[in-house]
């Protein structure tokens, strides 16, 4: 029995480590990618995945019913709020001209913003 | 003379599973109250009668203090659809994290692009849910959502070849279908079951 507990504990620790490493990769991406929109990719996706992996690791070590539900709630709100924040950053960056249009391969939003209004 | 208490199964104007009361016709949405109570109990992280009761009192208080417009949001829960959406999102989140990581670490030269993808669903809630789900997949991050034409504008990180753009478009439509099948009303589901609009419409359609 204690062997199983040890295996679960180790798996939890490994998940924690992988999750933290994924978050770190997101930070490196923020430093290395060239512009706001590319950086927002790095800021949201590896970070959300890393957060969920850390939560899974914590869940494996806590192993209680209510704690699991609380962790699921945290993951749910993380997935719900992260995209909203990144959308607001991307939208305001685009509208205030922080985006270098010559760098983009093509841009279907620009036509709509200039013609449509 | 109006009734003091009205239930949604007698009055079709009300959202499903809700009732209104009093002379000021306050509406209480029962699923919303249940959800707020669940969050309250989880925040205290012990399931006791005292927590459930105070949770109910607090959520009724919140719903009365900050009343929502009395509309049917069009939220339906389909258990199997939610499972499929969660599985697809988790898999996609993993692949997108790997892709972004590769892009960062090895600094591959790439050209980004902004594409507009017209969606098939029309309700605000489904539009928002799809936008949130798309932000979590490798297709890209949402820059702008145009509500009148139900078009989302997506920043695609790795768009060197036309196939990549087509793949990103198809992925948005796939996520849309899964999202609506998880949360949508029957007629929204019927709408996403149709094939996506052709790409010509995606580029040249003027805003009304």
Task: Give a written overview of the molecule.
The complex is a heterodimer of chains A (117) and B (208). Chain A starts with a helix and ends with a helix. Chain A is an all-alpha fold and 117 residues long. Chain A is built from four helices and no strands. Chain A has helices at residues 2-32, 36-62, 65-95, 108-115. Chain B is α+β, with helices and mostly antiparallel strands and 208 residues long. Chain B has seven helices and six strands; from the N terminus they run βββαααβαββααα. A three-stranded antiparallel β-sheet of chain B has the order 1-2-3. Chain B has a three-stranded antiparallel β-sheet with strand order 4-6-5. At the A-B interface, α1, α2, α3 and α4 of A face α1, α3, β4, α4 and β5 of B.
Approximate strand percentage of chain A: under 5%
Overall shape of chain A: it is elongated
Backbone CA Rg of chain B: 21 Å
**What is the radius of gyration of chain A computed over CA atoms, rounded to a whole number of angstroms?**
19 Å
Shape annotation of chain B: elongated
Q: Give the helix tally of chain B.
A: 7
Q: Biggest interface and its residues per chain?
A: A-B, 47 and 46 residues
Q: Which percent range describes the beta-strand content of chain B?
A: 5-15%
> How many domains make up the coordinates of chain B?
2
Biggest sheet architecture of chain A: none
First and last CA, distance of chain B? 44 Å
Termini Cα gap of chain A: 68 Å
Instruction: Give the strand order of the largest sheet of chain B, numbering strands 1, 2, ... along the chain.
Output: 1-2-3
Helix content of chain A: over 70%
Layout of strands and helices, then pairs:
The complex is a heterodimer of chains A (117) and B (208).
Chain A: H1 2-32, H2 36-62, H3 65-95, H4 108-115
Helix pairs in contact in A: 1-2, 2-3
Chain B: E1 5-7, E2 18-21, E3 26-29, H1 30-44, H2 49-65, H3 79-106, E4 113-118, H4 124-135, E5 141-146, E6 151-156, H5 162-183, H6 186-193, H7 199-204
